[in-house]
Design a protein that fits this description.
Strand content: 15-25%
Shape: globular
Structural class: alpha/beta
Number of helices: 14
Largest sheet: 8 strands, mixed
Radius of gyration: 22 Å
Low-confidence stretches: 422-433
Length: 433
């Protein structure tokens, strides 16, 4: 039986950052990760400015050609509309292949005094500070569950928790030898069955992520479905490369799931990153949330203080991610009204655009800032709906009712759940503001 100040389960970005944060605050840390190589692992690659800043504060150098700096996004609404530029107010995002970022962090960890990286698997933990691995037992003052969406640590301390809710699927492809409409930006293309997100991850590599609705065709027909649904909405070079990768079958799949970020551990156990909860990847917040969790854990005196802090600071990003996914994918009249209002704000209101980008980039976690943005968008949607020519009273009433339901969804404990499920929950339990 061995003893350590802290044991971190999981050697991805969240686990490595947690180990670095704890070591920099004087702890002796053992990080347990069974996989020696994460190549082919389809996971977070977009790091918002707040996440990049957190890594740099931990001593991680993100300069150099391996890491691509991005100033924000371009949203391409489709139907001949001009793209909308969405720049960060300050700072830049960083993109890189997931395995490259993990390798960079693990190499830094190996050179850090007080940290030991072990190729071991965690088999079980207890709230009292005992870790069971495939190499024996370790007694520790702190256990950090950084082992992702299928976290064994989380299951051990919360075996009866509700499972995540699947929202859609994400298809990931790497396109080579192509340019983007504007470099050093992410690009969101609307018009297909779901949004498509493209960004550069290397000199000759562009990542393309497709949000694919539930009920997609099976393996024999899914390639044709994706080509027919998404290719017409991509620019020429991206569309040609996309078709080629589809025909070669070079697709990675991931389920886009939602799990509330309101449980960050118990006893001597702290959860970070996806083990604590996760939202739809369209907002690209998962990697940044994980690193902010890790930094916060190292800064607090104990796991209880950490859990309180991250529970509070996770509420606004969770609502932002849920709203972005729903407003860009929903097809009901109320959601379409909100989409028109949001796109109008982004086109014509520089201050409103900056406020929303600060929320999206996790540079502002204040609930008051979110409420201000939501109230403005919803108010504009109501006014536009009432002024809409040709709508009968029944349609107007239905849209207004839908907008009211939207606000209840955003403010309640059901935020992030699909509208049908959240409506059932409201009916049973009532909204929780």
């Amino acid at each position: 039986m061995k003893v350590a100040d802290a044991v971190v389960a999981g050697g991805g970005p969240a686990g490595c950052a947690a180990a670095l944060a704890l070591v920099r605050n004087g702890a002796h840390v053992r990080l347990l990760e069974p996989r020696a190589d994460r190549r082919g692992h389809f996971s977070g690659e977009w790091l918002h400015p707040a996440g990049a800043a957190a890594l740099e504060r931990l001593g991680v150098n993100l300069d150099g050609p391996r890491f691509i700096r991005n100033g924000g996004f371009f949203l391409h609404p489709g139907d001949g509309e001009t793209p909308i530029e969405l720049s960060y107010g300050a700072g830049t995002a960083v993109t890189a292949p997931h395995h490259l970022l993990v390798g960079h962090l693990q190499a830094l960890l190996r050179d850090t005094a007080g940290a030991v990286l072990l190729r071991r698997r965690v088999l079980g933990v207890s709230e009292k500070g005992e870790v069971v691995s495939d190499a024996g037992r370790i007694v520790t003052g702190l256990i950090v569950g950084a082992d992702g969406r299928s976290s064994a640590v989380r299951r051990a301390i919360c075996p009866d928790a509700d499972p995540p809710v699947t929202l859609s699927h994400t298809a990931g492809l790497v396109l080579r030898g192509v340019g983007l409409p504007a470099e050093h930006r992410g690009h969101i293309f609307l018009g297909g069955p779901g949004p498509a997100l493209a960004y550069r991850i290397g000199d000759d590599e562009v990542r393309l992520c497709l949000d694919v609705p539930l009920g997609r065709p099976g393996p024999a027909r899914v390639g044709a479905y994706l080509e027919r649904g998404y290719a017409p909405h991509l620019p020429g070079d991206l569309a040609r490369s996309f078709r080629g990768q589809l025909r070669e079958g070079n697709i990675q799949w991931s389920a886009s799931r939602f799990l509330r970020r309101d449980f960050f551990g118990r006893g001597r156990v702290a959860l970070v990153g996806d083990a604590a909860g996760h939202g739809h990847p369209l907002a690209a917040q998962g990697l940044t949330c994980a690193l902010l969790d890790a930094e916060c854990l190292g800064a607090h005196a104990g796991p209880a203080d950490y859990r309180r802090s991250r529970t509070l600071r996770s509420r606004t990003p969770e609502r932002v991610a849920a709203a972005v996914h729903r407003v860009l994918t929903g097809t009901d009249p109320a959601t379409l009204a909100l989409r028109r209002s949001l796109l109008g704000l982004w086109r014509t209101d520089p201050q409103g655009r900056t406020r929303t980008m600060r929320l999206l980039g996790l540079q502002d976690h204040r609930r008051s800032a979110l409420c201000r943005v939501v109230a403005g968008i919803a108010g504009d949607a109501v006014v536009s709906t009432l002024r809409s020519p040709g709508d009968d009273m029944l349609r107007l009433a239905s849209t207004i009712a839908g907008l009211t339901a939207w606000l209840l969804w955003m403010s309640g404990s059901h935020v992030g759940l699909p509208p049908r499920r959240s409506a059932r929950r409201v009916a049973l339990f009532g909204p929780h503001v």
